[in-house]
Amino acid sequence: MIRNSDHDFLTRVKESEQDTFAQRAVAKAQDAQWIKRESARRDLGNWEDWRNLGEQIRQHVVRYLPDYLEEFSDNVEKNGGHVFFAQTDVEAQQFIKNLAIEKQVKQVVKSKSMVTSEIGLDKALLEIPGLDLLETDLAEFILQEDDWDEPTHLVFPALHKNRDQVREVFIKKLGYEGDNDPQHLARFARKVMRERFLKNEMSITGCNFAIADNGMINLDTNEGNADLCMAIPKIQVVCMGMERIVPSLKEAEVLDGMLARSAVGQKITTYCTFTSKQVDGETDGPEEFYVVIIDNGRSNALGTDFEPILQCIRCASCLNVCPIYRHIGGHGYGSIYPGPVGSILSPVLQGNYDDFSELPYACSLCSACTATCPVKIPLHKLLIKHREIEMDDKHMANIIDDTVMKVVGLGTGHSSLFRTALGMDHMALAPLARKNPDVAENLYSNGKHLEWMPFVFGGWTKVRDLPDPPAHSKNFRSWFAKHKKEQAKQGGLEAAVPQAPKNSNAFRPTGEPVLRADGYHQNGHPITEAHAHAKSQTKAPSRVGHHAASLAGENVPAGSHIDGDDIAKAAAQQEGTRNHD
């Protein structure tokens, strides 16, 4: 169920490129989230110390995952709950379907959960005759009413929908008669959902954190829909990936704050809920409490180079800085998990590259994702590792490609052969070059480019145009040799190179410094992730040091997941809606 499109990668990308609204919405969301995220992180204090702590917590949990899963399971059962370990998506589906049938449930409500989307739970439950299911996160509710459209973002699932599209869906499916004002749309959806909440017999939620030492679960939302899901029904089912666990509340406190800041630029989500089975003498909480702990390929990462991906807390900050995601959106990836994290996680969960062989290459290797990750997952390095594995497999399976690559390596590895090839490339490719000033005149003086090349080189020109190489007498090496001789006659090469004043940053042509002394642009924006916190070098809060000291002694730290929904004000606006699991 991880793959959510039947189209191949290039088809998906072309379709995404044609959706100009979605591209504008993604760009707008990325820019807005960058400002909010950096502001929230600076307020926290020394962000790098917090990142180090988050990394240590998550690494520790993954290292001792079996122990924490056993502790959590034991405590859930001590509280009167039930735990089911599902190795596959089918096992998880079947357990929940059987439970609904056994309890004769007809009304089910869900809060947003990426793992339930991963296992295809919604459509599986709708196979039960007479069962009615409602997604209660506003963004997911919109997608459900739009014939189960696929989400495009981990936190903002309906980012690709504008207010007019949302209005049309509500008119067609729900009889809406109002305008396209986001608040009116959200108010109407609220009314529809509140009526359904009152009929609820079973709630299904995700899990941001499972607290090992007390058997509780932690849910973070901005809409409060998860709390409403749990308020009325007697039965609650919690679905969680097996890595969604923290040792205790103190680790959950650390990661809750980091998640909210990284995902939606808030200090904490509006609702931060901890729950378990109803205790004797209390009125709150479900009478029956079931936790479904899902593997579904996660164990493929354990003990491998990809183990760090299990540290992921689904904050989606990597999506919000990714230039590839900015241009192709979530649907371009063809996976329930888009962006850099999805490009790594999807083939890991599936256990092969059959459906996702292109995703590791949907990356510019700019490493912005790694720099922004709150738990310091080396995302770009994991993408490179995927490429290495794929290439090794391909070379073993394709002797011809392997031979061609060896020949190319031989030619580029010897200077004399390389210079000879450079002298011949223009003559060899000139017959294939086409005139197109719009494409190449700014690159080479002849303004020609290559749209097609034969043999294995065609793989490159299928997806990009190449400038026609210049004649040998006009290439860079020839120009530089000639330039060097001319400058030697005039007193040396250094005399011709402009020298920046000492003790200065890079200068504009006017001499105005690009950077301020504090590492910021003149317009006030930080230059890099590191500069973003240049003014936050205050002493880290005492609890950071406390947790770091605990980790040094291998005391328990933790992991997480997210679920934020700020849709009351953004619900159906052009950039879509906000949510998070």
UniProtKB/TrEMBL annotation:
Keyword Cell membrane set for record? no
Q: Which Pfam families match?
A: Fer4_8, LUD_dom
GO terms assigned for molecular function: 4 iron, 4 sulfur cluster binding; metal ion binding
The lineage's top-level taxon is Bacteria
- InterPro entries per the record? 4Fe4S_Fe-S-bd, 4Fe4S_Fe_S_CS, FTHF_cligase-like_sf, Helical_ferredxn, LUD_dom, LutB/LldF, NagB/RpiA_transferase-like
Domain LUD as annotated: residue spans: 69-294
Specify whether Transmembrane helix is a keyword of the entry.
no
Keywords noted in UniProt? 4Fe-4S, Electron transport, Iron, Iron-sulfur, Metal-binding, Repeat, Transport
Gene3D superfamilies xref list: Alpha-helical ferredoxin, NagB/RpiA/CoA transferase-like
What are the start and end residues of every segment in region (Disordered)? 554-581
Segments forming domain 4Fe-4S ferredoxin-type: 310-377
Listed GO biological process terms: lactate metabolic process
**Name of this protein:** Iron-sulfur cluster-binding protein
